[in-house]
Amino acid sequence: MASAQSQEDQVLEEETSFVRILTLNRPRQLNALSAQMRYETDSNVKLLILKGKGRAFCAGGDVAAVVRGINEGDWISGAKFFSKEFILNYLMATYTKPQVSILNGIVMGGGAGVSIHGRFRVATENSVFAMPETALGLFPDIGASYFLSRLPGFFGEYVGLTGARLDGAEMRACGLATHFVPSSRLALLEEALYKVNSSDPAVISAVIDKFSLEPYLKDHSAYHWMDVIDKCFSRRTVEEILSALESESTNRADAWISDAIQSLKKASPTSLKISLRSIREGRLQGVGQCLIREYRMVCHVMMGEVSKDFFEGCRAILLDKDKNPKWKPSKLELVNDNMVDQYFSKINDDRWEDIKLPARSNLPATAIAKL
DSSP class of residue 61? Predict the structure, then answer.
């Protein structure tokens, strides 16, 4: 097995005869983009494996660095960062060769973007998935409005708005993971995958199946209460969702309901409203349309014209760490529809243009279905 690594790209590349392995050493591995494009055109490469190093698979991006750049008056550099990332997400979602993401650890934010869009996602008992953006004054981006909106019922709204943490069993149950493999079997799984000389998803799935099991869903898992989640999170507005949850909490003392209520009350009101609309629009859009829309949204967030909650969230959670953000507007009822609409409009700046996603051809049926 050969390997190569440079200080610049911080992505460990390994290869066997027909398999390429990318190990992510840092968050939001934008440099994986060049390797992905190279592998896609290499006829010798049949399969791509993506995994993390250490405890995390990938815990999201260095948004603090983006905020520092914006505070210095350069939001366009932040836009370029997100543009590269979203293009990588699109490439992964429409990849012509199977990708196996081994999610043996934390999968949050940008970490979800480089894995959930892939063909196979392997969770373990160590997996922790979350989209915590509403607590940061952001929204679930990286094409999350595409995959969250396609989870069973309104589970995507629940996960996206509350930032709820899911374990490996819950990831498997809702479809964020395609397989569950105990971490003790991962070395054997990887060894078996290294020997694969096929790009046939059925062949690769059969290999993973040999090491997989159906995990036990814990008694307190919110996934047991999909009827309540659907009843509450199908509501038209965030205010109605919160009201429905509070109504349910008077009849039952389930921890997940009180946790959801507290999360919604602590989150940025603006973030909650744009996130709900984003996921709802995602139900009717292809992955490319979702990423184009999310790029507009994230650029508006960085410009801070409607709300500067992203900067305040990063200050409170990532920089000062007082965990006491002062949101403006401070209440859901102060965020009106016109304010929300602005996040979905084109940017009025001569330096800005819509993200240009690369043209894709010779796609497999699974990728075409996403378009």
Answer: -
Q: Please tell me which residue in 9, 13, 133, 248 is annotated as part of the active site.
A: 133
Q: What is the rounded CA–CA span in Å between residue 157 and residue 45?
A: 37
Contact residues for 294 (Cβ-Cβ < 8 A; gap 6+): 86, 139, 141, 142, 143, 144, 145, 278
User: Which token pair is 203?
Assistant: 């062949």
CA distances from 284 to 101, 164, 223, 365 (A): 26, 24, 24, 19
**Dist. CA 139–CA 300, nearest whole Å:** 12
DSSP 23: E
Please say if 14 is a catalytic residue.
no
Q: Which two tokens stand for residue 59?
A: 């815990």
> How far, in Å, CA of 230 to CA of 241, rounded?
10
Q: Is 313 a catalytic residue?
A: no
Tell me whether residue 337 is exposed, middle or buried, using C-beta atoms within 10 angstroms of its C-beta: 0 to 12, 13 to 18, 19 or more.
exposed
Residue 110: active-site member: yes
**Which pLDDT does position 240 carry in this prediction?**
98
Average pLDDT over residues 351-364: 89
Structure token digits, residue 181: 């493999």
- Catalytic: which of 9, 13, 60, 61? 61
Q: Is the pLDDT of residue 312 over 80?
A: yes
H or E segment and range at residue 312: helix 309-314
Inform me whether the pLDDT recorded for 138 exceeds 50.
yes
The one catalytic residue in 141, 157, 248, 294 is 141
What is the residue type of 203?
V
Asked if the model's pLDDT at residue 58 lies above 80, the reply is no
Q: What is the residue-averaged pLDDT of the chain?
A: 89
- pLDDT (average), residues 69-85: 81
Mean pLDDT of 241-261: 94
Measured between alpha carbons, how far is 186 from 181 in angstroms, rounded to an integer? 7
Reported confidence tier of residue 155, pLDDT bands at 50, 70, 90: very high
Amino acid at position 330, single letter: S
Does the active-site annotation cover 73? no
pLDDT at 265 over 70: yes
Spot the catalytic one: 52, 105, 110, 163: 110
pLDDT of 34 higher than 60: no
